[in-house]
Amino acid sequence: MRTPADPPPAQGVGRPADPAVAGHEGGDGSAPRRRRPVRTSLVALAVVVVAAASGLAATGALGSDGGGSAAAAPSGPARTAKVEKATLTRTETVDGTLGYGEATAVRAPGSGTPAEDGGQGGAPAGRATAGDGSGVLTQLPGEGQVIRRGDPVYSVDERRVPLLYGSTPLYRTLDVGAEGGDVQVLERNLAALGHTGFTVDREYTSGTAEAVRAWQEDLGREETGTVAPGDAVVAPGARRVAEVKASIATVPSGDVLTWTGTTRLVSVDLDVRYEDLVDEGTEATVALPDGTRVNAVVADVGNAATARPAQEDGGSDGATLPVELTVRDQEQLGRYQAAPVDVTLAAETRRDVLAVPVNALVARQGGGYAVQVVTDGGVEYRPVRLGMFADGRVEVSGAGVTEGLDVGVPG
């Protein structure tokens, strides 16, 4: 975090020397900082200062000596504001996308390695397998449809292939005597679907086989008491169909469909220079296309940087980190299913500092900045050191600058 420093001497009237905005050398002689994106709110704040300072300086009311107090102004300010103790937070706004996360594929068996499937909200967790490689497709879901535990993902020869919740796929034929995590996934789902007569554990018993027969009867399948890899699709939770890739009356092969989680989230390809601004649990604000602002929380930060193509304007290549944010109150998102959004992240915070409206600053002819202080005895200009700019205010410090002072602001 930067320590506020004196700005460089002003050449006549100028803007506050905020290195984070202007990219000029800091008052402490430090090297120039990299320019922030144009959308950063600091730019707009500095522009206000330019206008305010120029107007006041043009009246000739600013002192040219470098002393602690300038000569009294000929008249009081049009209006005043208090020097307040506040917490200032500088922010960075980046581009994001509202949607349901990355879509993953459900593949028919015999089409290669099963695709990695996304969990609830899009986090990778588990694999999806589908079909038994024979027959033709007789039922497919619709795009946007939500599939829950026990619902058919699709049907082959009118035999339903249901969705089961879990992280271990059905990768082998299960029968009495089998043991493992896939057995536990099957038994947990059988119990959730109302079947009894067995203990949910890692062992496939005769009780498990009897429950499987009852489940197969419900599905309209042959009651074998055994489960093959293509008899169900396993995913970590309910899924939303993104795209149907197969067609009715065709043999299932390749990608049958793609799907996502059912919760809308915000995805960001974050420039790696802002990596320190995000961590799991970091709060952010999301602006929707209609101007509505909603609160979000960082749920996942990718570990590997992804190469980013060169920018059309000639900017240098960079790298990004995949970041996902969740919105707790989904109703605030309205009817948006997919949309570009702006994500505002907190970049730096200064707590319990003295702050004034940014347009209370005036440029001193001798260099630096001052505030117009209104006292019982009149009006005087007191030099100030500038700190952080945020939310239309600026951090100030200096001799005689205390909480509660009245300072002039343009009318």
| Structural class by SSE content | mainly beta
Can you tell me the CATH topology of the largest domain?
Muramoyl-pentapeptide Carboxypeptidase, domain 1
CA-based gyration radius: 32 Å
Number of strands: 23
Percent in helix: 10-25%
CATH architecture grouping of the largest domain: Orthogonal Bundle
Terminal Cα span: 34 Å
Pfam families: PG_binding_1 (PF01471)
Transmembrane segments: 42-62
Region (Disordered): 1-36, 61-144
Protein name: Peptidoglycan binding-like domain-containing protein
Structure, explained:
This protein is mainly beta and 411 residues long. It folds into three domains: 19-92 and 349-409, conserved putative lor/sdh protein from methanococcus maripaludis s2 fold (Beta Barrel), CATH 2.40.420.20; 93-99 and 264-347, Efflux pump adaptor protein, beta barrel domain (Elongation Factor Tu (Ef-tu), domain 3); 104-260, PGBD-like superfamily/PGBD (Muramoyl-pentapeptide Carboxypeptidase, domain 1, Orthogonal Bundle). The chain is built from four helices and 23 strands. A hairpin with a 5-residue loop joins strand 14 and strand 15 (293-301). It is elongated. Residues 1-74 and 113-132 have low confidence and may be disordered.
